[in-house]
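Just curious: can you write whichever protein you like plus the matching structure tokens?

***
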Amino acid sequence: MKRFFVCVALAAVLAAVPAFAKKTYVNGIDPNYPPFAYVDEKTGQPAGFDVDSMTWIAKHMGFEVTHKPLAWDGIIPALLAKQIDMVDSGMSITPERAKMVQFSEPYWTVSRVFVVPADSKLTPKDILSQKIKLGVQRGTSEANAIKKEQEAKGYPFELRFYDSAPLAVEDLLNGRIQAALMDELPADDAIAHGRAVKKAGTHGVPDQFGVAMRKDDKELHKLVNEGYKKLMADPYWKELQKKYLNK
């Protein structure tokens, strides 16, 4: 009788355990990079084009994903230290980053733009040739590119570094800087939310966004690439573009 109850108890335990547990990956995101990734002020939860994209991919590729907000300039070190498993958060594919991580296939292309107050008459030529204060988000491809360009060409502007593009916009409106360089869609997001700024023009070559992963994580690399391929073929891809990017 005792053996019978043991067998029944064991069967109950086994029945409660799923046939297989889904693997959970942690996606590191910039908490203030709308519309691609941010923390929603109303819900306190991660949101954005990239967040929703990876959530969809996880569901359809058979894994779980959580989104972890992190400081952008420390996000690759966190990836390499295995605190997170990927970065799907508007990260530009650059040769410097590719030395440290592997990227998915590109999923989006975005231009870099100069942003100025709505009543400003500054042009891109003015910004590059005058002694103004120019804001950029630290740790970004545009920050690294404009710094190298300034050193090579001797541009007279003073660079100011910020933790996010929206913070640069705030200082732009407060008169602490005269222009900011950022990706076009965050600039569009600021304008759409009523910030009194405008795009003065593009600068440099467009960036391609990809998902960053550790170089030895071949399984995840395959899942992400296949997942984005499925997503782009699904009507939900267009829904995300309409919701977040006004496309």
